[in-house]
Write the structure tokens for this entry.
Amino acid sequence: MTRHTLREMAMTCLYQYFLLHKDIREIVYDNSGNSIDPFLYTVTIDAVANEKYYIAKINDTLTDDWEFDRLGAVEKAILFMAAAELDFETAQKAIIIDEAVTLAKKYCDEETYKLVNGVLDRL
């Protein structure tokens, strides 16, 4: 699988995690089968292990009247995954932001990509 495909799968897993509050391991295994790519593991299971840290980092970059909890589940998933990627340095910052913006343009409201771009640029 390509990194883009894995990011899309990770976004789907994190979306389910934030929406359904199920165990992230169970979600990832259900979506990927028995063979989990190390990259997918890092941006889902490892990321959720540090959930409070990433949410705090995202909250620090949002404006005063916005918080992570106020975002939609898809936006949360994209920002959370990208914050973990930036922290784990899975790729160059520009690539991570571009991929997150691409996902936001595909799955979110028309203007959401601007929020994603702005938040990630400040991380």
Summary: The domain at 3-122 is CATH 1.10.940.10 (N-utilizing Substance Protein B Homolog; Chain A).
